[in-house]
């Protein structure tokens, strides 16, 4: 049975949940909802990423995609808190083989009570800006990076994406991808890079003495009650010849800027498969073993994705590491994981 709403012209106006095919739920409605309830790491990505399907009523939505007979929900539903249980239940009534990816402990608990297997997917680092600073020996490398860049004539600037800037960062992005093991843009859990101005996205650039962009870091907004409360790091790119301390210097400047503005939090995003202990919910022990093996495996880190290096960079910030979860209805996950990898365009 096809549950998708075919009209792309109207947002949901009642309490009944409707399924919208790829990009059919109006962007204006998605942004309206995410500004009200989008306080999680993937909230903004679930609204802005192209190619997603949505399940929605007037109170909110969840984002999902299908692959090889499996349905994958992206992050927590973006919905009024009192609607969280109902949107999960209604979605499960209409879809089979549903897996929830990179969800919070709160949503993981709801799925655990619905007899899902709930495994840790890694951790998400949170910086509480009211008390956060770069003082102390543990964060000395960030101060060193900033001073090193300043002494050599580099500047960190926040810029809009003019035509000239877009051209520069397209070239830089292509050169950066050429240095990666996976030489293409990923998707779903990491939204693809877009070279357009997007609402409330912040962009910080490292510019050399000649005025050329050498590196950049972009931050997606997090919201609550129509206010920006913080940011999530989304894209980090560095020219192959740029200083190795570029990202540390940019992140320090951006975080200090957000703190001066009175923002509450910065999230550094998921460190996949890092720090898995699975001590909170009923978990799939085989999946736990597989994910922990992938994190340690040299061949995975060398030829596919540098999981350990990714996590170590985020640990340098000395933030609070919050668990992110993966919830699946079945014990066997081989096809499910392969479908998710393909959905993320890693293979």
Structure write-up:
It is built from 11 helices and 14 strands. By secondary structure, the protein is α+β, with helices and mostly antiparallel strands. The protein folds into 2 domains: 186 residues, Aminopeptidase, CATH 3.40.630; 134 residues, Aminopeptidase. Helix 5 crosses helix 7. The longest helix has 15 residues. It is globular and about 60 Å long. The protein starts with a strand and ends with a helix. The N terminus is likely disordered.
Provide a concise account of the structure shown.
The protein has 347 residues and is α+β, with helices and mostly antiparallel strands.
Rounded Rg: 20 Å
Stated plainly, the CATH topology of the largest domain is called Aminopeptidase
How would you characterize the largest beta sheet? 14 strands, mixed
For the record, the CATH architecture of the largest domain stands as: 3-Layer(aba) Sandwich
Summarize the amount of helix as a percent range: 25-40%
The domain count comes to 2
Low-confidence stretches: 1-9
Tertiary shape = globular
Our count of helices gives 11
| Beta-strand fraction estimate | 25-35%
Distance between the termini: 30 Å
Mean pLDDT: 94
| Structural class assignment | alpha+beta
Please identify the top-level CATH class of the largest domain.
Alpha Beta
Order of helices and strands: EEHHEEEEHEHEHEHEEEHEHHHEH
């Amino acid at each position: 049975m096809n549950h998708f709403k075919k009209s792309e012209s109207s947002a949901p106006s009642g309490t009944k949940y409707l399924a919208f095919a790829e990009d059919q739920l109006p962007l204006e409605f998605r942004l309206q909802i995410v500004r009200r309830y989008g306080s999680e790491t993937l909230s903004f990505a679930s609204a802005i990423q192209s190619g997603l399907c949505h399940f929605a009523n007037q109170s909110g939505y969840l984002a999902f995609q299908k692959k090889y007979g499996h349905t994958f929900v992206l992050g927590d539903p973006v919905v009024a808190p009192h609607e969280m249980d109902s949107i999960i239940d209604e979605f499960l009534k209409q879809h089979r083989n549903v897996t929830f990816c990179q969800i919070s402990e709160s949503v993981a608990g709801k799925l655990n009570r619905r007899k899902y297997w709930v495994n840790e997917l890694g951790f998400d680092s949170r910086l509480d800006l009211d008390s956060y600073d770069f003082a102390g020996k543990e964060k000395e490398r960030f101060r060193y990076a900033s001073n090193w860049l300043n002494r050599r004539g580099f500047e960190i600037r926040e810029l809009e994406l003019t035509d000239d800037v877009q051209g520069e960062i397209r070239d830089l992005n292509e050169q950066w991808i050429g240095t990666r093991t996976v030489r293409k843009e990923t998707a779903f859990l990491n939204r693809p890079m877009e070279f357009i101005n997007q609402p409330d996205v912040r962009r910080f650039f490292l510019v050399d003495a000649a005025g050329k962009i050498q590196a950049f870091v972009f931050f997606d907004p997090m919201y609550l009650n129509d206010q920006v409360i913080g940011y999530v790091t989304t894209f980090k790119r560095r020219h192959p010849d740029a200083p190795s301390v570029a990202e540390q210097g940019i992140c320090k400047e951006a975080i200090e800027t957000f703190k001066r503005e009175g923002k509450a939090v910065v999230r550094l995003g998921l460190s996949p498969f890092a720090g898995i202990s699975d001590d909170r919910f009923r978990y799939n022990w085989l999946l736990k073993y597989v994910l922990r093996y992938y994190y340690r495996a040299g061949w995975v880190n060398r030829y596919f994705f540098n999981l350990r290096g990714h996590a170590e960079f985020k640990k340098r910030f000395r933030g609070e590491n919050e668990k992110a979860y993966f919830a699946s209805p079945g014990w066997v996950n081989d096809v499910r994981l392969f479908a998710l990898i393909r959905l993320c365009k890693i293979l």
